[in-house]
User: What shape does this take?
Amino acid sequence: MRTGGSDPALAFEKIGVRFGDREILHSVSLELARGEMLALAGPNGSGKTTLLRVASRVLTASTGRMRVAGRSASDFSRRELARELAVVPQDAPIAFPFRVGEMVLMGRSPHLGPLGFETAEDVKIAREAMARLGIEALAERSILELSGGERKLVLVARALAQDARILLLDEPTANLDLRHGVIVLDRVREFVRSGRSALVVSHDLTLAARSCDRIALLARGRLVATGTPTEVLTRENLRATFGIDTELLTASDGAPVVVPRAPAG
Assistant: This one.
């Protein structure tokens, strides 16, 4: 079931997550607009992956609620939600030697009929997703034979084949070389230009500034700043988020370039 209207594609409303005595997220409110690519950045342990897990309902928030296109996420069945949200995790432990083509085709699962058989159209969509990332030649290879970067490309292709309205990507350029990192983010931009949305967890602030419409900085489970890359990437915000001083340069295309300074001492 597709949703419509003018509501944000995804909205976190005062999300709190607690593990025992540890409060991981503190009343985080954040919206992902339709047709937007939003980066979520912050130091290790700041709660970025936790927020994505709440979005995909792997975790249940202790407080607050999440809406998908205006509907409470809890109103969606698992199958419905998988048609709205596609997830690219940092990595996915895989013990069985699935072929790459089979892995990408798994992205079509939310769209299969009652008997669960793939159609020729499903196979075509999976092949197109692999072609968009340049991994057609890997189709018959075992996923267990691949490098970390190749596995990441397979996970991105699987998410694209899922044909959801929203992509949730956790460090999508991790383990990728410069060329493939640019290709992945370019494919995500294509996805967003089609009117859909992407929430991207990234440690590469310079790449995020060049690719994303807005950046949200998260530190110690709280939002520090949200806005355009130029608005958010200031020395003050970066010091409050990461606890270090930075130099901010401007690339030829006007995008901010973040250069960290070594801590004193």
Notes: The chain is about 30% helix and 25% strand. The mean pLDDT is 92. The two ends are 57 Å apart (CA to CA). The domain at 10-94+165-260 is CATH 3.40.50.300 (Rossmann fold).
